[in-house]
TrEMBL record:
Keyword Transcription regulation: no
Protein name per UniProt: DUF4293 family protein
Upper taxonomic lineage: Bacteria, Pseudomonadati, Bacteroidota, Cytophagia, Cytophagales
Transmembrane residue ranges: 7-26, 65-85, 97-115, 135-152
Domain of life: Bacteria
A Pfam family the protein falls into: DUF4293
Endpoints of the signal sequence: none
Keywords: Membrane, Transmembrane, Transmembrane helix
Amino acid sequence: MIQRIQTVFLALLAIAMIAMLFLPLWSKTDPTTGEEVVLTAWNLKSYFLTEQGTPGAAGNVPQQGTIAIGMLAIAAAVIAIYEIFQYKSRLNQMKLGLLNTLIIMATLGAMLYYAYFVGSDLVLAGEKGTYEAGFYMPLLALVLNSLANRFIRRDENLVRSVDRLR
């Protein structure tokens, strides 16, 4: 049935992964030159900050595509939506939940790779950079996915216990 609590968790998971596509994930600023590198789900770009702190001219670093992060986030959202409509087969839902966990972990891994190994080398500042709002969306999605899987497993155990009584 669609009105179960795991449906709410899976819908929130899909919303979190789609929101990640539009939010910045990570940024790092070089205080000497005023150049800032920003990682989004689609690209890694740099620009110079104006005196007011707003983005200005393009930076020295050429823009790099990070489409893998965006595609993994879309895949996680699509699997979560598909998982909602697999309510008649809880075992398939649990398998899709496991697959979604792996995809969300791959999204986190890709984000950390681009932030620490690619983006960190572009701006030579002593700090590691700051995590933006979009970075926390896959972490929220992991929590929501584990909650949905817990309630799916609980429903399956309930159905099996009722079958034993018959």
